[in-house]
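# nightly structure sweep
# worker-07 picked up a monomer target from the shared queue
# config: single-sequence mode, recycle default, output format = structure tokens
# input follows
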Amino acid sequence: MNRRTFLGTSAAAGLAYSSIASTAAEVAKGPVKRVALIGSGWYGKIDLFRLIQVAPVEVVALCDVDSTMLSGAADMVAKRQKSGKRPKTYADYRTLLKENKLDLVLVATPDHWHALPMIDAVKAGCDVYVQKPTSIDVVESQAMLAAARKYDRVVQVGTQRRSTPHLMEAKETIVDAGLLGNIAHAEVCCYYHMRNRSNPEDATAPDNLDYEMWTGPAPMRAYNSLCHPRGWRAFMEYSNGIVGDMCIHMLDTVRWMLGLGWPTSVVSQGGILVDKQAKANTTDTQTACFDFDDLQVVWQHRAWGHAPDPKYPWAAFLYGDKGTLKLSVNSFDFIPRNNRGQQAKPIHRDCKMELEEYPEDKSEKDLERHVAPAVRVHMLDFLNAVAKRSRPVADIEEGHISTVSCLLANLSQRLGGRSLRWDADTHRVIGDDEANKLLVRPYREPWIHPTPDNV
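# output follows
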């Protein structure tokens, strides 16, 4: 049994494309859930407001280390939720968890703050929706998975391509139906010019930001306006770079589409090859190969130049002997080979943004409108799993595999591009002591690094 077959028979199925409407109706009839959001910035509000749209919830608490952002988010929640109540606000998530009886917690902090709040929330008896990637290092992610299982909590990771309606359709009607034939290669990419190119001077953090708490367990850097708000992905101290931000989505899409488990090896090369003047320390160019034995998935990002396919600048491409499938957040295209007497026809679908069904999406500041339907379905899948005490489509184990695969790519690049052979059972790189030492990074005091044994 190969790795694709094994995961295909064991992974959480998630919602079927045809069942979205019926699941939405069931969720709408369910009991009111008490909800808290940790990290009330850009995507935290996108996630929370989509949850409010599809489920009976009462947002009772918000947490953020930026008092201005926190107060603004609380005002917005009061206008959006049915009760009209303004949630309580907190600067420390630990106090929030201690003082409130909660059903659901959403974690939408910068990446370096995902692990600890998620673990503490499941310890408090909450089911959790945590943004991707799960973690900054491999052991953090292991600990998150261990905590979810130990406390028997449902944890959905924000890899919402698994819940993107037109991609769900593509999986069911093209991949699962066998229209691609034998698939032995996939490519994933991002050519967005998303790496910050500015070079502001370090400065004093604004009074509304508790920069000590914002930094938390990460290495302390001098405050810079690039860090907050939203610019923290420019630094590897707080993120996993473009690989951790964008590759994880498309690698996870391919894994979900094809039922892939762990790669047996990962190799990556790249660096800051073009934009050497900016303060950002993430790579502007990087290629990685994730080897699944009978299939390779190849990643490339360039934060400069043109995309080879302008309609698919951030995408996944599945290559079969009967056709090709192009996948993005905006559309998909099936291109049959039409050989050996085949009569298959090309198929194209665009994302339906549902602006008439959810008119508040039209005016919501900074909303990614094309992604909103996917977040809604991802929330429905999460709530369906909560009700049934089952595994959601982006269960923490699936998020762990996709995150760690990307972390290994970054480690390979950091170690000069050598191939890292991965033992998923032991969670060690085979025969590479130097790489294994980098699977966990030091935490800044007084924070204590979580491990599978101390959660």
